[in-house]
């Protein structure tokens, strides 16, 4: 095949892979992996080149954190936090909604948001059942909070993990540049939920008293394991904060933490490795190869030139285009493949404009805020949304596409507008 033919072939495979991921007719891990393998068989990439395009740092960081969380989950500490939140809220439903959503946001900043919702949602059903409440508003607030909280740090959301891995930006950079505005966005979102739902929940004083009486300490299953996993979790987060100073990649920190915890917890590796979400890992692996095909055939280069021409090289306009394009696109397609495509594109725009890595920084913040917050727009916008919808259905509640979008899309637009104001004032 000639150069043009290879480029067309790579683009067709990319589009078909994307459509299969969106349709959910085929599992996204199978779609991405098959797309990657077809590009190698078709001669777009050699196997060696394909391996070069895989971001092993992203995969290592995800695997390491999944192992740490998998072991920590067994201690019951996450259930403890939920029961504690109910007590602090004194059994008031609207306060419980805000407390659980805030715990979700905080946990999502330090664990990935899929893991967080898998921990919090089952507890939410238990609380809603015991209080005879409809859990849907609680679930909606937790979906939004997980994507908002995940935006705050390097390790909170896969798009940030990918951006951090492909740039010079570390844990502290994300913390200093994104956390302040994320706190503001979370507070604004919770205020909206407060005014929407404060009069919607009707609960008797007896039920409130009953719920408050549950002792959070009863939820802790294994104190010894809690001490060990807490110690390793603190060490790992400390490692993330200092990783640039020691010239270590974030994956090295996460995998070291995982190995240490497996060692001191004396858990069976076969058992623990089941807590790794392997379909997600293989999804990433295939996706990196599919996007690598676009890079190798020069298509990313052409797209970068087009973007530069469209904004006439205006840096502020480029930043706003990336923010809003990422937000709207991520509402309708999973933000992970979108970000995987945008990263080489921004790098190429920087090369064409002769910009230093430091000068490109505002564009990375625009991509992170757009892609992570945009995931709140629809029920298919982020992995956490899809998982919560599935759990709701299992429990006999429906989170419909339009029902979710009616509340979530305007809130997503509001959060991106706040992010835009922040970027314009401080970066552009």
Give the secondary structure arrangement, pairings included.
Blueprint: H1 3-23, H2 28-41, H3 47-53, H4 56-73, H5 77-88, H6 93-110, H7 113-130, H8 136-150, H9 158-166, H10 171-197, H11 205-212, H12 223-242, H13 250-265, H14 269-273, H15 278-296, H16 299-310, H17 315-332, H18 335-352, H19 357-374, H20 383-394, H21 401-426
Helix pairs in contact: 1-2, 1-15, 2-15, 3-15, 4-9, 4-13, 5-6, 5-7, 6-7, 6-8, 6-10, 7-8, 7-20, 8-10, 8-20, 9-18, 10-21, 12-13, 15-18, 16-18, 17-18, 17-19, 17-21, 18-19, 19-21
Concise synopsis of the structure shown:
The chain is an all-alpha fold and about 425 residues long.
Supply Rg.
Answer: 22 Å
Topology as a string of helices (H) and strands (E): HHHHHHHHHHHHHHHHHHHHH
The residue-averaged pLDDT reads 88
Total helical segments: 21
Protein model, in words:
- With 428 residues, this protein is mostly helical.
- Helix content is 77%, strand content 0%.
- The protein has helices at residues 3-23, 28-41, 47-53, 56-73, 77-88, 93-110, 113-130, 136-150, 158-166, 171-197, 205-212, 223-242, 250-265, 269-273, 278-296, 299-310, 315-332, 335-352, 357-374, 383-394, 401-426.
- It starts with a helix and ends with a helix.
Question: What features would you highlight for this structure?
Answer:
428 residues; mainly alpha
